[in-house]
Structure prediction request, 305 residues.
Amino acid sequence: MTAEAGSPTKAATEPPEAVVEARQPLGSRLAERVSGGLVRVFLIVVGLFWLVPTIGLLLSSLRTPQDMAASGWWEVFTKPSQLTFQSYEELLENGDITSSLVNTALITVPATVLVVVIGSLAGYAFAWMDFPGRDWWFLAVVGLLVVPVQVALIPIAELFGKIGLFGSIVGVVLFHVGFGLPFAVFLLRNFFAEIPRELLEAARLDGAGELRLFARVVMPLGGPAIASLGIFQFLWVWNDMLVALIFSDSGSQPITVALQTQVRQFGNNVDVLAPGAFISMVVPLAVFFAFQRQFVSGVMAGAVK
Prediction:
């Protein structure tokens, strides 16, 4: 039986494959094309090469200074008896290194928490609260993003010296907070601005105030962006050396400065430097992998928006 005149056939109603592919997002089309087995093998190989320095540092930290001076770290694969925890035992007996690890945590954790909390509150205010000069204040915050850290080192060092904060952990934390807030406010304001207005209005109609609205609605929705910001800030502060080298003293120096001091004073004590450098590296890696899912969600959400 033939189709009646004027009635659309199934082939005519279905869109062609080219049109369906064009309607798909660019990210979906790229994901389909690169999801082959060969590409996965290539990415795994690249990832392994990327981890070679970390693996080499770990194996070096598990060898004695005599073995490190005689051969490379890859020899442990043929002589696993070289592996020992002697270097880590000596590291725990080094008071400068252990105290610097504690100082690093005392600097990094407050600097990260303060930037996330203050940046979240300011980002919400710039996104959904009306106050005089809001747009001009936000432009001023964006303008601070282009201020180099090196320009402010000497003026802020003089200011901290006058008020008694130079050489203290508090001074290092305040410097990191001050230079981390512009990026935090800019990032979170743009993310919070994408929240549907109807959702916020419904919460206000239910009697929610601004703080309750921020805590119950905005914070859960902004979790991925906040996690991404926290990871960036943590990695930046933990690995920082320039700011800590200028604003800290012997009693407040973090691990990066302590390792640099050990190299300057005792250039051949690799039995302390190798495990200290590995611990300094592995902590940021652990933080990143612990919040990897939230970080990817935040990046993908920003890309979609």
Remarks:
- Residues 223 and 294 are 7 Å apart (CA to CA).
- The mean pLDDT is 79.
- The radius of gyration is 27 Å.
